[in-house]
Amino acid sequence: MDRITKDQLIQDYKNLFFDNFQIKPDIASIAPGRVNIIGEHTDYNFGLAMPIAINKWIVSLLSERSDNKVYIYSVNYNKRISFNLNDLNNSNELWEKYVKSTIHVISKKYNFNNGFNILIGGNIPIGFGMSSSAALEVSIVSAILYKCFNKYDKHEILKICNEVETKILGIKSGMLDQYASIFSIGKKFLLIDFNSITHEYFNSNIKNSSWLLVNSMVSRDLVNSEYNIRVSECKEGLDLVNKSTKKNISLSALTFNDIEVIKNNKKLYNRLLHVYYENQRVKKMKEEILNGNLNNIGELLLESHCSLSKNYEVSCDEIDFIISISKKHPGFIGGRIMGGGFGGCTINLVKDNLKEDFILFLKNQFYNEYKTGIEVEEFSFSDGSHILTNL
Ligand code: GLA
Prior knowledge:
The chain is α+β, with helices and mostly antiparallel strands and 391 residues long. 43% of the residues lie in helices and 21% in strands. The chain is globular and about 60 Å long.
């Protein structure tokens, strides 16, 4: 388990930056990963979700150059790349593509001639649904906007990151990950409405239990997953409803009766049903977290999992196994697959006094079934992205 603190991370990277570029960084831009309590595959459907930033970060340290070159050192991949600001197209690896696409979108909106030295590193596991790529985008956009234009406009950072994903990388994703990374505040719970692009914060009254991530170690990336197909299926389902009802309803306004109209098309019906009930679960979850009602919270998590697995079909055998075995342990309150799906993590609420026993039980059961290990990640909630100067 990676328990490194943010300060340690920045200190280590400051030294590495100097070793690599023989100069001190001007700024550090910190962007956290996120968990999502509930509200999955609702963001691009203009619905509701409840993500929160966690104490795992991508950190970009940056200094401005006097020429138009960009030199990047990736600590996690231990790789160095360099390119001109006017040559942002060719990338060999996915992380490189994310970095170049991000700089590309910023350079189309803002004029800057000077390049940068950038060190990128972090402790968010890559490819397991904790939003390492969104955090990477947020940290680079924030760093460049702050350094070059003295600007830290959260909505503008969100918009640029979304353009990177949808217009350049071709992922039809919503804004869940970047929103959480940018707007989270410490221990507050965050509820986002993607229809109005607004959010609210509230306090948790959950007691004597902890949130745990169980990492199935089944890796996936959104670029190559069925994610885009789900986005299209929801649009198709909505079109079908509108055609059949001769209405012009938006996804956020769909009622149960509207969806019933396409019952014959089982697949699209199930997709919309998931979105409809998941939005309701987000609203109920807020009430139950405010009340601290563990049983009801657990039920909502399990209902969400069932819907993601059966109606939305974004789970996989390993994850379904983790949830069904977890249910057999007395310490398990509830849990579900988290993030884009097709692998990655489950998020679980577990009783504090039985936590260690639960972790051991789950690891053993999973090993017996698949002969491979899982990892359990404990985390705490953290503040959203920010910039440090005076390094
Ligand atoms: C991924 C995407 C998000 C969101 C989730 C599913 O994490 O990046 O925009 O759609 O999947 O809720």
